[in-house]
Amino acid sequence: MFTIAEALLLLATDDDKGTQVSTADSMEYGFTGAILSELTLMERIELQDEKVVVIDRTPTGVPYFETVLDEIENAKKPEKIEYWMDRLPFKMHNIKKEIIQSLVEKGILKEESKKILFVFNQKMHPEADGRVEQEIRSRLQRIVFDNETPDPLAGILLNLIKICNLTAEVFGEEKKETAEKRIEKIAAESEYDVAINKSIEQMEAAIMIATTTAISMTVLNNTMPPNN
After folding, report:
1. Tens digits of per-residue pLDDT, 119-141?
2. Which residues contact 216 (CB under 8 A, 6 or more apart)?
3. Cα–Cα separations (whole angstroms), residue 15 to 57, 90, 126, 132
4. Contacts of 46 (CB under 8 A, 6+ apart)
């Protein structure tokens, strides 16, 4: 079994090189949105007066879920989604290591070291077992092009694929426009939302808006010419 964050990382990783594909935008925000979304679906966090609060501290068994829950629980006061979308990405370097380690332990990725300038070691994580990623890709293809009904996890993953500029990587450049229109239609119809309650729907909407805004601002800042 894998999480939304793990699926997103697999889709954003070059299978042979073990590095992030160049087209993926601001993945730290995508991972943040994925983790907050899944914790919401697990009913571990929810919105109360527009603030994110921990409502169930039963161990999840997922190290990076525990890391994020600790951050939210140890905050001086309850904060809005936008606060966590600003704060958590700065901690995503270590959280991403935990996501990768989970995939290594499951035998999906492997860890290799590569010498940089003959001195520095760089860790790479190419695929060890491509069947899981292929299964994810096949399911997403069926949802987008064959009208298979998505469950909440798949619906969230599709939204994050579009937000993080991974649509062409997952569905092919020639099908990107068609896939994005279909993803927008799926999100608008929210057929999978019948399985979750209203507070979770509200939380999901807030997370997706905050993730989209954060990534859009980062991309805009990175493309603006420097001030003279």
Report:
1. 667 777 888 888 999 999 999 99
2. none
3. 35, 26, 5, 12
4. 40, 52, 53, 55, 199, 200, 203
